[in-house]
Amino acid sequence: xxxxxxxxxxxxxxxxxxxxxxxxxxxxxxxxxxxxxxxxxxxxxxxxxxxxxxxxxxxxxxxxxxxxxxxxxxxxxxxxxxxxxxxxxxxxxxxxxxxxxxxxxxxxxxxxxxxxxxxxxxxxxxxxxxxxxxxxxxxxxxxxxxxxxxxxxxxxxxxxxxxxxxxxxxxxxxxxxxxxxxxxxxxxxxxxxxxxxxxxxxxxxxxxxxxxxxxxxxxxxxxxxxxxxxxxxxxxxxxxxx
Length: 242
Description:
25% helix, Thymocyte nuclear protein 1, single chain, phosphoprotein, EVE_domain, 24% strand, THYN1-like_EVE, 5hmC_binding, 7 helices
């Protein structure tokens, strides 16, 4: 494959606070918190109106009842801009995915245990947001679906790959990957700053993004989403950008 380790990580790289920032690709790196901190402050009142309108339509479906948290969608981070890691360019944008045979590829290179466990929890046909990370303006650009459930990530055994893990054994692999297929582009780019504006408002009024993992565990490259979180974020593509 032309991009042998293009996705994520040893944990996710935080998005750049400045265009020329260089950030180490480790889950524990404190600089990773910049993805949350870099977002601009929400415009006054920008979220609540959207949340109220969305809530009216959803309450008719749910009866307003709260249910146990259940994750059934995902957010997958990938870097759309060139960056060398051990001499290999880890760039992989949604356009690169679209250029693959059948617009399908494996999601390799995850080297964080929680992110790996999320990969292993993915089910055939589930949808995920494709999120451009570690770039000038991070955000959601499209939708993909899971077309093959978790199986061993071959890059862990490849000594030439940036994500080679000498401690992993073929009889008991540490790391997994899934196959994803392009579904469609979102109707517009949904930037991190806009999602954060809603998240902050929802923390105050109990909206669906109040506990979104993009902000509570922002360094993870593989993140689960509830149906409510997925639906609300997807509804943003219909709104004009602020």
